[in-house]
Amino acid sequence: QQQVKQSPQSLIVQKGGISIINCAYENTAFDYFPWYQQFPGKGPALLIAIRPDVSEKKEGRFTISFNKSAKQFSLHIMDSQPGDSATYFCAARGEANFGNEKLTFGTGTRLTIIP
Amino acid sequence: DGGITQSPKYLFRKEGQNVTLSCEQNLNHDAMYWYRQDPGQGLRLIYYSQIVNDFQKGDIAEGYSVSREKKESFPLTVTSAQKNPTAFYLCASSIIGRSEKLFFGSGTQLSVL
Known about the structure:
By secondary structure, chain A is an all-beta fold. Helix content of chain A is 0%, strand content 53%.
């Protein structure tokens, strides 16, 4: 059962443009929504995360927009650079009861920034 | 430097063979996890552990086994019962209560000969 749906599967953006990746979830018990960035041959690394009581969070060129009523959230990368070319995963965390706070990941988006 | 070390980077399995992937962390984290990554399928949780000598099955535990004898170590065995083992395996750790912030190793690519 896919609890976090991510789109698009791949994305090509020109340098300086805005990259947008979208995710949707079903389980209203999720309580934290992180985004991870992965470069080829490496493990993912946390990029930015948001709680559902906040509609937007910005860190540098990266912004998460969160729509609780629609159960959707998205990652925006402003002024996209070739160094941003990577695979991005959205994720959702189960409620933090002991033994239940697992991350469920989306299927990933391969982002390519072209000059 | 603190971090997670996975070894080997590449591993080949013959039919009917069990293989063990190593994961060691020096972050002093209580929680450790194993994920499997396949193209187009994201990361799927195999097993996780929040304390020594205790672990829980994730979403795709069949054909895998783990142990947690030390806080720093969480090895994963891919058994012969796992019929489709070719994948990129990622080990991660976190502070208890902060599982939104996983620290990942660099992964092991397992292939079948």
